[in-house]
Queue: 2 jobs
Job 1
Amino acid sequence: MLVAAAALLLGGGGLAAVATTALAGNSDPEATAGHEHTTAATTISCPDVGMKLRQVPSGAKLQVSKGLATLDRQVHDAYHQWMEGGDSEVLSRLKQKRASTIGTMADAIAKNTSAQTDYLSKLATCTTKPTGVDGADSVKSTDGDGSQSQYYWQQQQDQTQDQSQDQSQDQSQDQSQAPQPGQDGGQQGQIQGGPSPEDFADITSVEPNAGNPPFAAPRGDGASTGTFTTECGRNEEGHFNSDNVIVTPGVGNGAHHTHDYVGNKATNGFSNDRKLAESDTTCNNGDQSAHYWPVLRKLDGTSLDQPGAGRDGNNGSVLTPSTVTLQFRGSQVGQVQAMPRFMKIITGDAKAFTNGTANANASWSCTGFEDRQLKDKYPICPDGSEVVRTFAFQNCWDGQNIDSANHRTHVSFSDQDGRCPDGFTAIPQLVQRITYDVPEGQGFAVDSFPEQLHKPVTDHGDFINVMPDDLMARAVNCINNGQNCN
């Protein structure tokens, strides 16, 4: 339960909401230290250029990568200005900067291919989005040319989410408690915003909505019922960075939030396939794959003046997972085939709060309650129960590409019956499960891009398959023959 009070602060044409939260019944003043915070009434919402890319030739990849990182930095800076009381001119300037950056990216693509790039020029305009729990309110914003446009936030679920629901992959709708702005440890210039009290839910009040156990291997006639589990540790070695090697290779701090890594020890923004293949690993059996996800932070008022941390509005102490389980499972309708080495998969959407839920795939729960999965809430777990994050990855492959321009279209989810889309074939489905011992009454939040306000719906996982071919063949054999291997 949360006790929350809100007031409006007006200044300089900007609008912000102040929310104060505390866990009811918590009599320990230290337990709620740092839990007073402010959240923005609106955030900045821009078209996701990376998600819209149709083709990126090899000769344009670095320029496009740098452009995507620049676009994120521009939104970061504009959001900071907005939070400091900026007015509609913030959006006008942002549009001009984005148009220039997008134009440079389009030129690089056009120079290396005959593909049309005119569609990219339409993605420069940003607007604002209300930060309410349901996002149903509309908000007027200047679209950069002086006119007023009406922005409507639409809660939508696409086929991907429907499929993951039907496969017992329901995902995060929870919880209570939040701070983040106002917790910068006295440092100046820290971005403020999120999470909000409405971003949390008591797991005991959630009705069962998933399988028991959820994310279990397929069963029944015709299914490939085996599993293959790889052991890679809990990041005991402290492998962290704020890079994004899949989306923005060749760029530092491309994620604007800190990633937690297990597996391949060389993974950073500058890792190419050769470096990954030559690297040591924390996994057993010589599995050099890279697994990573945004860190989870305890909102204890601490802040580090570093990229991906305090400089990007990610404050608090990083929580070390209690357990990390990495398991591959089969198909409901037949055998799976091997993943190609160096295949890259992203599941979930780090910008789902402003992009919408088409690619969202967050799943939050508590140990002992995993038949209750939350999509856009953090769970409040009872005493003795740990927070659980689960990522069930895409399980269908186009049979040709190890990646795609938007890092999405080369893979897909099967339908509710387990069938892949036409032209796709079943591959082992990776399920990443991470648990955390979060003290009862302690606020926490996932790292995010600043304008995403640490919303739980933005949680996501990343995977680069660097299994040796013989190990992948062993995994496929185990899965197809109904064995449970590790």
Job 2
Amino acid sequence: MNSVAGPVAGLRRLQALAETGGLDDLCERHGITVLTVFGSTAHGAEHPRDLDIGVLLESGRKPDYLPLIGDLQNAADSDIDLVVLNRGGPVIRERALVGSIALYESRPGAWIQAATVAAVERMDTAWMRRLNLDLLAR
């Protein structure tokens, strides 16, 4: 793909599509229940590095990565970094959901519910990550 837009322009394009319902078909086709933008672009960094997109898929749905990435890149007219949140750990799920820009949710409240679950799971499992680091340090 010959990308003409940087991450900020890509975010603006996705936001415009979200406002008009232009992301609905893409998300429904891929079984996406929540789509967010997170990371440096979402947080307004002066020189964002990339356009990080997180997607939560319908329960039991397996991602078809190449078509999904291609459709999202075409929609953004920008290169993207994709995280399928169903397959990520609690830390990346929280980072991609809490404080992110939600561009699509399949039903009202899907994003905030997913963000809450991710934050609670990250907090509940923090002790295991600390223990793992302690064991690795030995």
